[in-house]
């Protein structure tokens, strides 16, 4: 956050080639792009055109104009803006940029909203060079970007992991008198939690508290994830008490993250307390909740409880995650509980889950691993009898079962 803005950024001229991050400098096409831009002192609009032409191939039909296109009546300023915004909404950003070029050729420039839409969509598609070029074009034209525009560009930089550009943009906001709002800090918090940057996460939280920004359940959920990834599960538990003191009602994702945190560090009883609290608050478990409970109980060796959660999940009408199903069946196979495996499979068929070839493939694989080859063949026969097509994965696991049987002799 302490990086100072260089003179080229404030001037808005010849800047795109010099704002490349270390990662981008290793990319040959961005290096080539930077050299082409530095060859002169063009306006931001011409820089943006170079970036657009190099970074994204034009869509069919946009590169050459027919005589009919040339003879069309010129669109009004309002029509251009409406079309640009519509294409941005539909994700056709190249069409929006093409319309922007047509406007500039006629001496017109888009509205604030059109510029914002293009910055947002380009950032979401990872085309941050173009997004920044359009942002600089706004300033070059004398338009003052709003707080929202800064946040949109910041979101694009952070999403692509361009922290140097993000830092420079934050400094530019401060120097330009643009206040950082709650959205700014939420964007930073998301990026730092995702990147596992614990100290930066604490800094953002400190700034939010200092500025008296509201810390809701989503913020606390992000804090739980960073604590989980850094082995600080006790701090995660303290968050629950803080939320209760402030009267904040946790939502489902917070509970899921907390259950997963306790399970990861073997605190199964604490995870169950959170689950009970979740139910008492009227929050309905989703597939992520059940997955965590089943996975960590299997890891802890409490197969009976894991099977109980597995049954409850199916009673809720949720389709079992193949990875979780594999986890349970593998544990049962280790203990030689083949009847239990068959019971689970039949139960799933009764609930309408038997039509999945993945489930059959898992069963075939487990039988093969534990030398129950006759059962593997029965699974294949059952698969054919139900009219399900044998997938490549099923053939692979069947071959593996054969191989293991041969090796065991």
TrEMBL record:
PPR repeats lie at residues 76-110, 111-145, 181-215, 216-250, 251-285, 286-320, 321-355. Keywords: Repeat. Residues 203-315 form the PROP1-like PPR domain. Gene3D superfamilies: Tetratricopeptide repeat domain. It comes from the Eukaryota. Pfam families: PPR, PPR_2, PPR_3, PPR_long. InterPro entries: PPR_rpt, PROP1-like_PPR_dom, TPR-like_helical_dom_sf. PROSITE patterns: PPR. The keyword Repeat applies. PANTHER family: OS03G0856100 PROTEIN (PTHR47447), PENTATRICOPEPTIDE REPEAT-CONTAINING PROTEIN (PTHR47447:SF24). Belongs to the PPR family. P subfamily. This is PROP1-like PPR domain-containing protein. It comes from Dendrobium chrysotoxum (Orchid).
């Amino acid at each position: 956050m302490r990086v100072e803005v260089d003179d080229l950024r404030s001037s808005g001229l010849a800047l795109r080639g010099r704002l490349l991050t270390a990662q981008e400098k290793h990319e040959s096409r961005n290096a080539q792009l930077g050299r082409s831009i530095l060859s002169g002192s063009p306006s931001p609009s011409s820089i943006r055109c170079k970036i657009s032409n190099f970074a994204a191939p034009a869509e069919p039909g946009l590169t050459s104009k027919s005589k009919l296109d040339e003879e069309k009546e010129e669109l009004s300023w309002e029509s251009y803006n409406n079309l640009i915004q519509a294409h941005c909404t539909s994700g056709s950003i190249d069409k929006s940029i093409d319309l922007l070029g047509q406007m500039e050729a006629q001496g017109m420039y888009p509205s604030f909203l059109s510029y914002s839409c293009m910055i947002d969509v380009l950032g979401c598609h990872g085309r941050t060079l173009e997004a920044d070029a359009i942002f600089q074009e706004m300033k070059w034209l004398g338009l003052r970007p709003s707080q929202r525009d800064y946040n949109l560009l910041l979101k694009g930089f952070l999403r692509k992991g361009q922290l140097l550009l993000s830092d420079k943009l934050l400094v530019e906001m401060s120097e330009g008198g643009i206040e950082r709002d709650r959205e700014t800090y939420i964007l930073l918090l998301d990026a730092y939690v995702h990147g596992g940057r614990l100290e930066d996460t604490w800094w953002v939280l400190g700034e939010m508290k200092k500025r008296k920004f509201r810390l809701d359940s989503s913020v606390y959920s992000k804090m739980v994830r960073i604590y989980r990834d850094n082995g600080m599960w006790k701090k995660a538990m303290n968050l629950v008490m803080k939320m209760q003191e402030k009267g904040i009602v946790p939502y489902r994702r917070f509970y899921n993250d907390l259950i997963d945190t306790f399970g990861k560090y073997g605190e199964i009883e604490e995870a169950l307390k959170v689950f009970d609290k979740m139910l008492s608050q009227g929050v309905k478990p989703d597939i992520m909740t059940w997955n965590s409970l089943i996975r960590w109980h299997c890891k802890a060796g409490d197969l009976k409880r894991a099977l109980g959660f597995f049954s409850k999940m199916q009673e809720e009408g949720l389709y079992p995650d193949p990875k979780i199903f594999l986890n349970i069946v593998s544990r049962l196979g280790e203990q030689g509980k083949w009847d239990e495996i068959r019971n689970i499979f039949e139960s799933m068929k009764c609930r309408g889950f038997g039509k999945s070839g993945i489930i059959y493939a898992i069963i075939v694989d487990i039988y093969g691993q534990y030398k129950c080859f006759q059962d593997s063949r029965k699974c294949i026969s059952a698969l054919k009898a139900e009219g399900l097509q044998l997938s490549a994965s099923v053939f692979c696991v069947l071959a593996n079962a054969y191989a293991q049987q041969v090796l065991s002799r």
